[in-house]
C-alpha cells in the first residue's frame, strides 16, 4: 500500500507486476541460492492484491501478468473484467507466453512448448479473450425497474469459438467493464512477438539499446500495425533504459562495461 501511494504521489501511470510461477535452479543446479538469498523469490500471486491497492489510490493503474501458455482465455477474460470493475478502469494485462522451464514443470510440462507454437497459442488466446470481452455490448444493461428488464438479450452473444487450442461457447457472464477490455501489454520482440503486439497490444516493452535500433524497431512495428488495420499511435512503446550513476562519464562507462 505504501508503494502504491508513493507511486501515485509521484504521478506515475501504473505499477507493473511481472510474474513467473517458477523457482529457478539455474545457479548451482538447485534452488538453494535463489531461496536463501531471496532472488526474485518468493512470488506471490498479485491478483488478490490489486483490489486492495486500488482502494488506497485513485488514479494509478495496475498491470498484472498472466500467461497465455498455461492459463485459459475464459478464466483470463473473467478475471480481468472483474478487476477492471473493482479498479474502476485501471487494470492492464501483461500477456506473456512464458519461456521458463522451471515454471513449465509446475504446470505439468516436462518440456517447454516450442517458441512459435507458444505464439500461435497466444494469438488464439487473445482472439478468444477479446471476443469474450465484446460478447456483452457496452449498452446491453437496461436496468429498467418499471419494465422489469435488466439487460437487452439481443446485445448478449455466444462466440462459439472452435480453434486449435481452445473451444469456448460464451458469452462472458459479466457486465461490460469500464474499459470493455484491459490495457494489453506485450513484450515479445521476435517476429511472432511483433505480430502479436501489432494485432492486440496497447503497449509494448522493448529493450533496444541504441537510438538507431529503437527507430528500426518503431518502423517495423508501425508497418505491422498498419497491416492489421491499426494506426502507429494505437501502440505505445516503453523503452527499457539502464542508468549507470557515477562521479564521471569515464567511471560510468567503466561500470557499464563491467555490467556487460
Name the helicity range: 25-40%
Order of helices and strands: HEHHEHEHHEEEEEHEHEH
- In total, the number of strands is 10
The average pLDDT value, as a whole number, equals: 93
Distance between the termini: 35 Å
| Unreliable parts | none
Oligomer: single chain
> What fraction of the residues are assigned to beta strands by DSSP?
15-25%
The secondary structure category is alpha/beta
Major beta sheet, specifics?
6 strands, parallel
The strand order across the widest sheet is 1-2-3-8-9-10
Alpha-carbon Rg, integer: 21 Å
Task: Note down, in words, how this protein is organized.
- There is one protein chain.
- Helices cover 38% and strands 15% of the residues.
- It is α/β, with parallel strands linked by helices and 260 residues long.
- The strands form three sheets. The chain has a six-stranded parallel β-sheet with strand order 1-2-3-8-9-10. A two-stranded antiparallel sheet has the order 4-5.
- Helix 4 crosses helix 6 (115-133) and helix 6 runs parallel beside helix 7 (191-200).
- The protein is globular and about 75 Å long.
- It starts with a helix and ends with a helix.
- 26% of the residues are buried.
Summarize the topology.
Blueprint: H1 2-9, E1 14-17, H2 32-37, H3 49-55, E2 61-67, H4 73-87, E3 91-96, H5 101-106, H6 115-133, E4 141-144, E5 149-151, E6 161-162, E7 167-168, E8 183-186, H7 191-200, E9 203-206, H8 211-227, E10 236-239, H9 249-259
Parallel strand pairs: 1-2, 2-3, 3-8, 8-9, 9-10
Antiparallel strand pairs: 4-5, 6-7
